[in-house]
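Title: Comparing notes on inverse folding

I've been comparing how different people in this forum approach sequence design from structure. To keep things fair, I'm posting one structure and asking everyone to reply with a full sequence. Here's the target:
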């Protein structure tokens, strides 16, 4: 297929190296420009990124580029959630129907480093570090960069530029300045701060390692994901402002009192939690919506640059990797018609990413609040029973997202129908053993799920 004279990617985070590898395997030469230093050569600061949960969509992409067997060595499978209540009691809620339906905890930095190395090993990908993109002139097909080391400004002409530069995408900003291009950042009103649970004195995990731990507290929550070094990365998701918020917790005594009251078992696991809280940064959360994602065949944005979402469905990276999978397939189908390919990708994929953005926000409410509600727990039990009975027709929404590659928009639509079915079945239902399967069959036919 005919290739542009030069393919340039902006950003060497997770999406950039993966897409570059896909393109290199198709015979393209790719150059990536990254504003940060090479993390493989310098130490990585703590407290700046949420651990990743890799599921089927991300795994599929890793398999396609041939790195899955290597990457899975650093995966830690999690087969459910362990809920930590105020009285320090715990409950386990499985994610799927069996031990194959798991999500995998992985270090963002470790995955990023391996993807960069994989891309370079193709022999067709060059990564330029400490090069901050300043914007693009689409008429001249010229990108400007600022070298963070030499402090020099340079210009590069490129016929095809793809922005994989994350939620604060500079390429998206350049597009937004063009007529008929729109982008908005929708703040959640909640932010996050990372903390750490170190290994115990024996060197082992202090908590069950094959689970996602959640301390749900209504309007906020603490979560913990396991790491290979036997530590846990904890993340406090918390309102940015208000009576109980990042804004209100200022002094050591306030922070201590808050953790002692709300997370008594967690503070036992993190005796230095106050020091961590003060030392580590607070980051905002929000959703990015933009359209269209391309300028003719000249430029395209994908991943978080086009559709950043909040992390509560564990799909940010998985959705971005699925972008790469879909674009890779379209390169074959469109036979060099890059403008049409970029335009169709932008239109069709946006429908799905809008859907997962909505579901991610809805899942935050579930994680921080509903997991303690008896009605919600019964709902989940009913859904599991229906999936056992009708495995081809009724798949819980979480499973459709995490363990299948059903398009997100279809998941959302099917999920709404299934919610209506469960609501009707649960009228006057006190336990899942009394579920009327005959009535369930009628409803499934009625709603055409």
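Reply #1:
Here's my take.
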């Amino acid at each position: 297929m005919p290739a542009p004279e030069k393919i340039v990617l902006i950003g060497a985070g997770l999406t950039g190296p993966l897409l570059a590898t896909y393109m290199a395997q198709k015979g393209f030469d790719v150059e990536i420009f990254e504003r940060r230093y090479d993390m493989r050569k310098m130490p990585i600061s703590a407290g700046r990124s949420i651990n990743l949960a890799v599921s089927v969509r991300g795994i599929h992409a890793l398999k396609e580029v041939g790195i899955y067997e290597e990457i899975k060595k650093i995966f830690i499978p999690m087969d459910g959630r362990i809920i930590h209540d105020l009285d320090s009691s715990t409950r386990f809620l499985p994610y799927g129907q069996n031990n194959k339906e798991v999500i995998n905890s992985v270090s963002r930095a470790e995955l990023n480093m391996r993807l960069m190395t994989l891309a370079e090993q193709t022999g067709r990908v060059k990564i330029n570090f400490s090069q901050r993109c300043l914007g693009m002139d689409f008429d001249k097909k010229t990108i400007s960069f600022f070298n963070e080391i030499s402090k020099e400004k340079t210009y590069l002409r490129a016929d095809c530029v793809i922005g994989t530069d994350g939620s604060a995408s500079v390429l998206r900003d350049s597009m937004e300045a063009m007529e008929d291009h729109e982008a908005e950042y929708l703040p959640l009103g909640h932010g996050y701060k990372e903390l750490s649970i170190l290994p115990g004195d024996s060197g082992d995990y202090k908590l069950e390692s094959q689970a996602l731990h959640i301390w749900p507290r209504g309007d906020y929550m603490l979560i913990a994901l396991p790491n290979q070094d036997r530590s846990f990365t904890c993340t406090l998701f918390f309102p940015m402002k208000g009576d109980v918020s990042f804004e209100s917790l200022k002094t050591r005594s306030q922070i201590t009192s808050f953790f002692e009251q709300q997370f008594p078992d967690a503070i036992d696991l993190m005796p230095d939690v106050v020091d961590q809280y003060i030392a580590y940064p607070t980051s905002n959360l929000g959703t990015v919506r933009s359209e269209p994602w391309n300028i003719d065949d000249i430029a395209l944005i994908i991943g978080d640059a086009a559709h950043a979402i909040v992390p509560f469905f564990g799909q940010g990276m998985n959705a971005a990797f699925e972008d790469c999978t879909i674009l890779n397939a379209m390169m074959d189908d469109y036979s060099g018609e890059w403008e049409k390919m970029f335009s169709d990708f932008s239109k069709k994929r946006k429908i799905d990413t809008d859907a997962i953005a909505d579901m991610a926000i809805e899942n935050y409410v579930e994680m921080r609040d509903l997991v303690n509600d008896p009605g919600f727990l019964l709902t989940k039990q009913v859904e599991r029973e229906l999936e056992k009975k009708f495995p081809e027709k009724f798949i819980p929404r979480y499973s459709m997202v995490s363990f299948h590659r059903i398009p997100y928009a279809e998941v959302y639509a099917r999920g709404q129908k299934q919610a209506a079915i469960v609501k009707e079945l649960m009228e006057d239902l006190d336990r899942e053993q009394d579920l009327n399967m005959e009535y369930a069959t009628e409803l499934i036919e009625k709603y055409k799920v």
